[in-house]
Give the backbone structure.
Amino acid sequence: MKRFFKIYLLIAIAGFALMSCGSNETNSNENTEKIPVEIITVDVGDLIQSVNYNGDIEAEYEVKVFSKIPDRIEKFYVDEGDFVRKGNPIAKIIATTIEQSVRQTEAALVASKAQEANLKVEYERAKRLYSENAMSKQQYDAIQTQYEAAQAQVEQAQASLASARSQLDDALVTASISGIIGKRYDDEGDMANPAQPLVTIVQMDRVKITFDVTEVDLGKIKIGQNAVIKVKSYPDQQFKGKVVKVSPVLDPLTRMAEVEVLIDNADHLLKPGMFAQVEVTTGKIEQKIIVPRFAAIESTTLEDINGEDQVVKNYFVFVVDSNKAIQRELDVIYANHKYLAVNSGIEVGEKLVTLGQNLLRDGSPIMIVNEEPQVIGKEERQ
C-alpha cells in the first residue's frame, strides 16, 4: 500500500508540473488545483551528535625486524600470516667472518690467561722477596705492573669474546614481540641489509585508526568517546571503538590535530591498510523536535555577523493548516546527514510536509495522499 501511495504521489506531482506549463485557460484554474503531498506528525526525540572522518586501519603495534649482520640469508623460519611468539626464530644469517672472529678471540683469551697465570706466580714470588727485603722496590714495582697489565689483557680478551659471541647470536634473528608476520621482504639467499627490515610483526587483536580533525571539531572530541567504524569489505557491518588519544597540539601548516581510535578486532576482520570511515559520538541532544532533513528546503545567505561576512544556512519547511501549506523557517541547533534538531519554528503535533514541498508556496492548496507516523529509533538518529 505504501508503495502504491508513493507511485501515485509521484505521478500526481508530475501531472501538476505539466499542468502548470499549460495554456492560459489552465492557468486561470491554478488556484483551484491542489498539490498532492505526504506528511508526518511532528514529534520530539533524542539526536546523537557526531563528527565524521576517514582514515586507514593500522595494527595496534607494528614492529619491523632487522638483521644487524650484512650477510646472506641462510634460512627463513616464517612466512607472511604466520603467528610467532617473542623470541621465536625469524631467519638465520650466514656469519662466517664472525665465527672466525669468535674462534680468534677464544684463542686470545686462552693465551692471555696463560700469561696472567705465569705472571701471577712471578708476582707472588716478588711480593715475598720484597717483604723480606731481598728485592728492591724498583724490581717489585716492575713485576707488579706486568702482572696488572696481564690481568687487563684477560679482561679485554673476555670483553672481545663476549662482543664476538653477541654478534654471532645476532646471526639468528628472533621476534621482538608476539604477533603475526604482516610482510616478509626477502627470501633465502638474498643479502640482508641492516637498513631494510626482514619482516614486520603486527598485533591485530586490536587495531587503530589515526586521522586529523579540524580546529572546529577538536573541541568536541574527548578521550573515551565511542566511535563507529565502517569499511568497504563489510558494508553491512559496524565496528565499535573508542577515542584513546587526542593530540594536545595542532599542525601549524594544516591547523589540524591527530586523533587515534582503538577498535577490538578479536576475529581479525579488520586488516591493516583498509580504508575506513569513522563516526565519533560527541554528544546527545535530548527531547527536542526532530525533523527529517529531506523534508526541509535549504538555502544559504551571506550575512554580516559581528562585522564579518559569513555564509549562513537557512532551513524552511511547510506545515499543513486547513488544507493549505504554510511556510515556516526553522531555528536549527544541530544537523546531520539525516535529521535536524529544531529549537523553534514548528510545534509538536503539527503536520509536516515531507514529499511535494518543492512545488509549494506559502498558502498553496494541498491534497494529502499519505500520512505516516514519525517513527525514528535511536540507532536511526545517529
